[in-house]
Amino acid sequence: MKYMVNIWFDSLARLKNVVGRSGVTVNGIALHHASDTLLQVAGSSIIVSSAAGHNRFEGHLISQTKQQFTCVAVTACGRFAATGEIGHQPAVRLWQLRDDQGNFVGRLVRSMQSHTVSITIVRFTPDDSTLISIGCQHDAQIITWDWKTGHDLGIGKLMSPVNAMTVSFDSSMCVTVGSKSVKYWFLPLASDGLNKRTGLTSRSAILADKRNVNFVDATFCDSTNRMVAVTSSGEILEFNGNKKYVKCYSWKESGDFKAICIARIPEGLLVGCSDGLVRLFCLIGDDLDFLADLAPPTHLFQDPSNVFEAQQLLNHPEDAIFPEPRCLVASSSNPTFVVGYADRSLIEFARENKSWSFRRASLGHTGSVNCIEPFPSSSPCLPAGTLITGGSDGTIRFWNFNGDTEDKKDIANILCPSLLKVVYLEENPDLLLDKRNMESVGPSNDDNQSATSSGVLCTRVTHDGRMMIGGTATGMLYLIDLSFSDTPIIDVINAHDNDVTSIDFSDHATTSSRDQPMFLASGGRDRFVHVFRRIPYSSQFVHCAVLDGHQSAIKSIKFASNNGQLHLYTAATDRSLIIWKLSSFSEQHCEFTRVQQISVPSSIGDMAFIKYVEMFVVGGHDRMLRQFDINGKSIREVKGTDDDVAHSGKIQKIAIDHSGSYAVSVCSDKYVYVTDLRTGVCLAVLCGFGAPPTDATFSDDFKNVIVTTSNGAIFIWQLAKNLTERMISAQVRLMEEVTMR
């Protein structure tokens, strides 16, 4: 394969954690109850997490290609997993999760290719004898595999798209449901002695007057092959052991709710409903008798920082909007189950002794995560190591992945401890919900497009950490006060016609005059740079200047101090970098004059300024990193990617460590590169994102590189200890030089 380079288990970096997921579908989540192991799709990686609480563990299955995973399944023994993917020549891949001693392995065992375009469902039979894979409507194949040898046992032709599949208790048959179709497939076994591919025998269910219905989910109820299926209109249809439709359950006439997804647990049938609740029905007898219901512990526009007690998980405002359940992952032999909601939250419950119990939750952005920024470690407002992300869902989220530290105890919540706070800038609930997609081809492209259509595109925190600004796709600037626990929005400024691409505060400059006010600058896709001056003894900013020196979209703006004078550096896609100097200012006006304009050979993707080093680095679309001193003089240029890997793409974002020695380059080829700025040597190639990464940053302790992606996941890569030590040593030497100046 073109991209099969030995970079995936690089000695200088390893994947530590993944937060969020590509989406919530019944085929993209798997749960092994005996080992309490949860598998979920996140781009080209599978998150394998287990054991809530102190024994929590997380491992990862990382693809050796850039193709996104679409589905995952786990064997009944819990030692192996299977994945499906989308792209050219997609393969069903078998992974070893654990060895004989129960230790995590995460090793690719084999790849099995027969599908085209996309694989939408993989599923093991309950007795682990057979693996079943289903392709999208363009592939139109259902294939059974002897996964222990990699041989295919049988193939069937699909006549319509398949949305879900369920396997009988005795592993003798499976049922596929989709557009105007409920079909029973009889499964061959590896023990049958078949040495070549055969056709699968199938039989369509007798649908009667429901033959034009679109089915979205199904499950077997018991060993008599009684089965229920959910329709797109919210009805539940029951089929008997003779494959005949016998009964319809509907609640839409009363206007209460519609069924969306179903799953089987020991107590009965779980039904995810359109009003956000999960209802439990008894399967004993001829009818579905209601037993209990479960409201989600979260609602839209909820701030998890306010949830400290278990009772708060049950209390919601009267006007609360609940996200609808999109999938239920459960087992007929275990009371534990997982609910995936439309806001991409994933919550694990248990039903025991006629009561519900909340176990754990995973929250994240809905749609693209567009930017990331480390919170100043010197500020007392938030714990050290806090990260700030902005997403296309119109939220700014504050994260801390340092575990149970002392400074987190006062603000940690029981819902999602790593998510400290959420600030909602947009009031549109549709931004917080994934569109329900019945097209069974693969991951939706909406996530890649949403980064330029809505939400928060960039953020910036003041040097003291008491104030921050968020720029959105509608051209608005939201000023937020971080000195209060409720983080109020203190001002909204209409600055640009459309996307705000970069913002900066002047207090990040190396030096500044005490009698000089604080400035705020914003750059947009409308090619303008707007400068605002802070009103003395106030948190408000007033507009004081417009800079229109560029001919195309602004990509980055940075304040810096040169010989005690405030300068503003602006970079745009017109291949130019302009240095502006603050020449005069008053209470109503300020003037920036152009000092120098620098032309570079390729379009600029991003610019970073290194404090104390007085150097800025520009990342270009030719994948080069060009370094300039504070006066605009070229110092050196190095390759920002690895020539063995990067054959195409362009650098979109860059991040530099505090010493100015190492760079992280975010490239549109779906890789992220860690480079030595002095030698140009590529130290590590980070992968597994499955979608174009959007931004990256070093952690304050230089132990991690955190990458955000357009599919909604945040990847935390841990750097090797010797690389971290080199960064720390370089920073110590730099600070010694600064103090001696």
TrEMBL record:
<dbReference type="InterPro" id="IPR036322">
    <property type="entry name" value="WD40_repeat_dom_sf"/>
</dbReference>
<keyword id="KW-0853">WD repeat</keyword>
<dbReference type="InterPro" id="IPR019775">
    <property type="entry name" value="WD40_repeat_CS"/>
</dbReference>
<keyword id="KW-0677">Repeat</keyword>
<dbReference type="InterPro" id="IPR001680">
    <property type="entry name" value="WD40_rpt"/>
</dbReference>
<dbReference type="InterPro" id="IPR015943">
    <property type="entry name" value="WD40/YVTN_repeat-like_dom_sf"/>
</dbReference>
<protein>
    <submittedName>
        <fullName>WD_REPEATS_REGION domain-containing protein</fullName>
    </submittedName>
</protein>
<dbReference type="Pfam" id="PF00400">
    <property type="entry name" value="WD40"/>
</dbReference>
<feature type="repeat" description="WD">
    <location>
        <begin position="362"/>
        <end position="409"/>
    </location>
</feature>
<dbReference type="InterPro" id="IPR052779">
    <property type="entry name" value="WDR62"/>
</dbReference>
<feature type="repeat" description="WD">
    <location>
        <begin position="547"/>
        <end position="584"/>
    </location>
</feature>
